[in-house]
Amino acid sequence: MDKKTFDRRRQDVGNIVGLEHVNVRIPDQQIATAFYVVGMGFTRDPYLMVGLDNMWINLGQQQFHLPTNKPQVLRGVTGVVVPDLEALVERLTSVKGVLSGTMFDFAVDAQHVTVTCPWGNKLRAHAPAPEYAQMTLGMPYVEFPVDPGTADGIVRFYREIIGAHATAKDGVARVTVGSQQTLVFRESPEPKPAYDGHHIAVYVSDFSGPHAKLQERGLVSEESNEYQYRFVTITDPATNRPLFDIEHEVRCVTHPMYLRPLVCRNPAQRQPTYQRGQDAFVNGARYDSR
Asked: Which residues contact 149 (CB under 8 A, 6 or more apart)?
């Protein structure tokens, strides 16, 4: 029998195994529903945060968490994959009227649709493609602009402190998050807005190792509970110089909500053209948008 050889390192993903959500505050659930549910085609979680003080929006296996309060704006852009860009543009066009007077806007480019939420958060919507693996609905990356000269230090932080796979090239640091997601830090000379406290949530397989290294450097900002802690500041391990602030909600894979199944609807389903059996979104499926 012929013996095959494989480079087993190609399937390594590093310590961060998933990006679960982006959290930004919003002041109005009705406007948020018009944007995230009607316009973007995502789904409000039917089980958790169903009151007026918070709303969770499902897209694939990821979420936007939207507590009701003074609005926050992510310093960067959230990448999303949607099944059909043409259908997305139709939905966004349909909510122009109800979202008039807000910061809502969108622009169609050759490869994606750039969308601005009513409070200024940027989303970049892509069609399913090989670079997003099997993802047909979800959040493949979050990209942040960072100061020039910081990409290499950011890579060192994620490699040495978090245990993630990370690379830097041409002023762009890329941090591998599981098999389909990436954190991107792109150097830019443009002025950066002040950090307003928004956060991202990630799951890690080695929970205690990064915690010990963060704690040693005084970087743990919250001891949330047995399954979670937080840190805000990314520093260069070689110099301890602060490089960028973005709160990470760090969860272990024994967290009760790890890989919780999320309900997602098929946004192509409409009452006038209802098709039995196509209410739920199924990853990888193709739907008739008539």
From this structure: 187
